[in-house]
Amino acid sequence: MKEFWIYTGLRLLSLVATFGIVAGIWSLVAGEVDIFLSVIVAFVISGVLSFFVLDPQRRAFAEKVEARAAKAVEAARAKEDAEIDSEIDSEIDSEADTPSNGEGDSHKVS
Predict the structure, then answer these.
(1) How far apart are CA 60 and CA 72, in angstroms?
(2) Taking the CA of residue 90 as centre, how many other CA atoms within 13 Å lie in the half-sphere pointing to its CB?
(3) Residues contacting residue 102 through CB under 8 Å, at least 6 positions apart
(4) How far apart are CA 27 and CA 50, in angstroms?
(5) Predicted confidence band of residue 97 (pLDDT cuts 50, 70, 90)
(6) Could you give the percent of the chain with pLDDT greater than 90?
């Protein structure tokens, strides 16, 4: 979970910093800032920037998620195997408890 918070925090920091830079440059050039367009430009720039700059953090987060998913799948398989084994054991036990009607007994003498 730590990787998630690190990656998310860095993405938000990147967005806020990019917005500050875009709004600052916009203010210097135009004299006033269009907040809506500044946010859109900041989203685009920070998205592209984070794709390259935050690659190690994203990979660490993806590896953690993949390991967690593999662990959950393995636990589900083990649970399913245990259920199947218990069903087979109960079928074997019920067959052993059922009295034979004599048909198919090869050791029976007529």
Answers:
(1) 19
(2) 6
(3) 108
(4) 24
(5) low
(6) 33
Which of 20, 40, 36 has its CA nearest to residue 28? 20
* Residue partners of 35: CB distance under 8 A and separation at least 6: 23
Look at residues 59, 26, 58, 31 and name the one whose alpha carbon lies nearest to residue 42.
26
**Can you read off the two tokens belonging to residue 17?**
């910093």
pLDDT at 2: 83
Max CA separation in the chain (angstroms): 112
For residue 42, the tally of other CB atoms under 10 A from its CB is 20
C-alpha to C-alpha distance for 90 and 94, rounded to whole angstroms: 6
Q: Both tokens of residue 64?
A: 């953690």
User: pTM above the 0.70 mark?
Assistant: no
Q: Please tell me which residue, 84 or 25, carries the higher pLDDT value.
A: 25
